[in-house]
Amino acid sequence: MPDRGKAVGRIVKWGVKYGPHVVVLAQQAKDPAMAAAKKTMERQRSRRLAVEHASTVREGTVLKAFDPRQGSDEPVWVVFSGEEPIAAHPATTTPLADLVARSDLSMRKSPHEMPSTSEWVRQLPRQLPRQLPRQRPGRRKG
Which of 13, 38, 62, 74 has its CA 20 to 30 A from that of 19? Predict the structure, then answer.
């Protein structure tokens, strides 16, 4: 069993040696991490607002589309009342007809078919299934 004193000494030595580098890296990584978290929160908020809006209209459904004018990878959630698009979340300057022009309208979902984030997390398995170690091809055990 290794000596605890040596282990603590090594940790202190590494902390003094590499600690300032870790602090600088953490400060540099903070802004991109905050931007990514904010972007994710905005995506979730837009989806949630679209589902809530669709649940308040008659025959409300939601379709995930992408804005062809912006050319971004950000989804736009289009709310339908029956067969007519009535709103987009997040709001865009692109007309709703252009947003759904090339979309597959059979992919629309009603609000009760779309689980909330907390419901989705509850459905995840508690433990990931264990993977068996892979054997190299051409080699046999034994």
Answer: 38
Burial call 83-95: b when 16+ CB within 10 Å, e when fewer: eebebbbbebeee
CA atoms within 13 A on the CB side of 94: 20
**Distance (Å, rounded) from C-alpha 126 to C-alpha 121?**
10
* Confidence (pTM): 0.66
CA 23/CA 16 separation, integer angstroms: 12
Give Cα 96 to chain centroid, integer Å.
25
Give 77-117 pLDDT, tens digit per residue: 999 999 999 999 998 888 999 888 888 999 999 998 888 77
Give the span between the Cα atoms of 26 and 138, in whole angstroms. Answer: 45
Which residues have C-beta within 8 Å of that of residue 90, sequence separation ≥ 6?
Answer: 42, 46, 74, 76
| 63 exposure class (CB count in 10 Å sphere: 0-12, 13-18, 19+) | buried
Going edge to edge, which strands form the sheet with 84-89?
A: 60-66, 75-81, 84-89
